[in-house]
Amino acid sequence: MTAMDELLGILDLERLEHNLFRGRSPNLDWQRVFGGQTIAQALVAAQRTVEPDRHVHSLHGYFMRPGDTKVPIVYEVDRIRDGGSFTTRRVVAIQHGHAIFSLEASFQVEEEGLEHQFPMPDDVPGPEKLMSQRQLLEKYSTAVPEGIRRYWERERPIEMRPVMLKHYTSREKLEPRQHIWIRTTGPVPADRQMQAAVLAYLSDMTLLDTSTFAHGRAIFDRDIQAASLDHAMWFHRPCALDDWLLYAQDSPSTQGARGFTRGSLFTRDGTLVASVAQEGLIRLRR
User: Fold this and answer.
1) What is the structure's pLDDT at 144?
2) Neighbours of 274 (CB within 10 A)
3) Distance CA 179, CA 166 (A)
4) How far apart are CA 233 and CA 237, in angstroms?
5) Quick one: three-class SS letters along 116-154?
6) How many domains does the chain contain in total?
């Protein structure tokens, strides 16, 4: 089974009761559940209680406890409102009798209206001009920290090609911005609900790292305690996820042991498909 098959498998939640669903984690040696997995599974649970002609347009979630990869996660859905155009759901993810994550999501029927978008950054090289993760390992295996090297070595359902590599190999203080090409390593079903869930899964990648650039640090530094605190996402346009996406990120602020990062996801032709915002714990260990 490929990593992409595993991802699609864990997003196919088991229905336990009318508003109860159960999800599992991949059989990997992860220390805690990846935040993107919890976001995506909670979204799937909400989608299972919504009419199929209503699609997610926004979600807001809070991480409260680290997830245990060895036991299932139960998702309880609260059907807050079914209106004429919008549907609202609240989902709580539970392990060991405690909430580990909560999500609110809003769904809307398709409507026509005013439309505009910011353009995609125009000074970014295409993914074909950048090194794959395997090539990065071969070239920089001795130059990058051990934590980053182990991260690159893992087989994952998502492939990333960063435009800038300096923050991996130096401790120079850099502008807190980055561009990353990102795509799934296998096909995603032609189902809009599943495509939104996979997009939510990959949206949690690399955001916290961007908030460390201005300080000459990296998320895997031994003296940094890092964890996602919240995650917000707005789905602007449907996306088939059959090609590379450009993930443009910037971090306007770090303060109070927290880093804040924004992200925009563009298709290769420049269509803005989603916007993301996240605040995370960036605590220096004493």
Assistant:
1) 66
2) 22
3) 13
4) 12
5) CCCCCCCCCCCHHHCCCHHHHHHHHCCCCCHHHHHHHHC
6) 2
Q: Read off the pLDDT of residues 255-271 as tens digits, 9 standing for 90 and up.
A: 999 999 999 999 999 99
Q: Is residue 143 located within the same domain as residue 282?
A: yes
Q: How far apart are CA 97 and CA 275, in angstroms?
A: 33
Pairing of strands 20-23, 73-82: antiparallel
Name the residue range of residue 142's domain: 126-286
Buried b or exposed e, range 214-234, using 16+ CB within 10 angstroms: bbebbbbbeebebebbbbbbb
Nearest of 235, 274, 215, 249 to residue 55 by alpha carbon:
235
* pTM for the predicted model, two decimal places: 0.94
Active-site positions read: 204, 228, 278
In tens, the pLDDT along 31-41 reads: 899 999 999 99
The verdict on 231 and 272 lying in the same domain is: yes
Residue 256, sorted as left (phi over 0), alpha (psi -120 to 50) or beta, turns out to be: left
Find out whether 113 and 131 touch, Cβ atoms under 8 Å: no
